[in-house]
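Bumping my old thread because nobody answered last time. Still need a sequence for this structure:
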């Protein structure tokens, strides 16, 4: 495999992850955004998704400036709205993709992660998968059964079949 094909596969991996996340977000019913895992004092589903976007934006800012940003939190007040979450996650997903492409082309370099863009991408996917699991658990424990098209085909099928 040549370097261009490897870079394409790396970027396609991020795209697959992003598609699965947006399919999950789209499949969550309105009332499901307030679900929390049983006996949890943690974030509800909407705030979990807000957190994913906040972490993406934080790392992108850190890579660009070397400084930790002061980004808004969603700990208090009304829960973030589905449309706002989708808009933010789509935009930050594109920004991550663009940064990865620049890093693979030698035009950018992540801070920390030993300067390794693929390692940073692996961290993001791992971090977001952890929270996706918390989201799915919160929904299940709160009685929200997602359709199979979202639960199986969206979350896992995106990786396996590429659809």
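Sorry it took so long. Here it is:
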């Amino acid at each position: 495999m040549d370097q261009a094909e490897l870079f394409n596969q790396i970027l396609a991996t991020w795209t697959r992850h992003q598609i699965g996340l947006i399919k999950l977000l789209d499949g969550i019913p309105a009332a499901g955004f307030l679900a929390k895992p049983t006996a949890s004092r943690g974030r509800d589903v909407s705030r979990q998704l807000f957190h994913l976007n906040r972490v993406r934006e934080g790392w992108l800012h850190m890579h660009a400036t070397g400084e930790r940003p002061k980004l808004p939190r969603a700990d208090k007040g009304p829960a973030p709205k589905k449309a706002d979450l989708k808009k933010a996650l789509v935009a930050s997903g594109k920004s991550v993709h663009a940064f990865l492409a620049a890093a693979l082309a030698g035009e950018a370099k992540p801070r920390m992660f030993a300067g390794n863009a693929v390692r940073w991408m692996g961290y993001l996917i791992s971090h977001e998968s952890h929270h996706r699991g918390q989201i799915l658990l919160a929904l299940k424990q709160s009685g929200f059964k997602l359709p199979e098209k979202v639960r199986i085909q969206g979350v896992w099928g995106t990786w396996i079949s590429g659809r």
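The longest helix spans residues 3-27. Let me know if any region looks off to you.
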